[in-house]
Automatic annotation (TrEMBL):
Protein name, as recorded: Crossover junction endodeoxyribonuclease RuvC
Reaction equation(s) it catalyzes: Endonucleolytic cleavage at a junction such as a reciprocal single-stranded crossover between two homologous DNA duplexes (Holliday junction)
A GO term from the CC aspect: cytoplasm
Co-factor binding details: Binds 2 Mg(2+) ion per subunit.
Organism of provenance: Collinsella aerofaciens
Any coiled-coil regions, as ranges: none
GO biological-process terms attached to the record: DNA recombination; DNA repair
Keywords noted in UniProt: Cytoplasm, DNA damage, DNA recombination, DNA repair, DNA-binding, Endonuclease, Hydrolase, Magnesium, Metal-binding, Nuclease
InterPro entries: RNaseH-like_sf, RNaseH_sf, X-over_junc_endoDNase_RuvC
Positions of Mg(2+) 1 binding: 7, 140
Known cofactor(s): Mg(2+)
Binding-site positions, Mg(2+) 2: 67
Keyword DNA repair: yes
Gene: ruvC
Recorded GO MF terms: crossover junction DNA endonuclease activity; DNA binding; magnesium ion binding
Amino acid sequence: MVILGIDPGLAHTGWGIIEERRGEVRCRAYGCIETSAGSPLAVRLSHIARDLKGVVERYRPDTAAIESIYFGANVRSAIPTAHARGAALVALSECALEIGEYTPMQIKQAVVGTGAADKRQVAYMVRTLTQLDHDPHPDHAADALACAICHVNLSRTRALTGGEFYQQRGTGY
């Protein structure tokens, strides 16, 4: 199974493609979509959606996983991320991909073993689990790969327990 992981952000949206086969996870590709702060919001969101569709066309994932928004103490800082996340969800839906959504804590727990892991620990475990010879950079790409790994791990658990596998499915128009 090929999984696309996404770490949404207005300035930087990380993406990562992993392949899971017979319990083994390999990184196929990763990158980061960057948008210019000087561009209008609609242009930036269109850029994110268009580039993600290009990633889907190139790597043909079977499913996708996206990080949900953590508001923390500053809701205002989460608004641009929410916009980028919306653009990503629309793009994935239009590509008819099933989408799993995971909190940052779920991702860290599934990849590192603790929901309190820092970026360095996440990058190290992504490198180890996907058998890369280096930590993936930028951090946004490492986080996207971690999201995809989380999807694989939690999907296995849900399949074994009969739990709900996906939270939503794209429409494919």
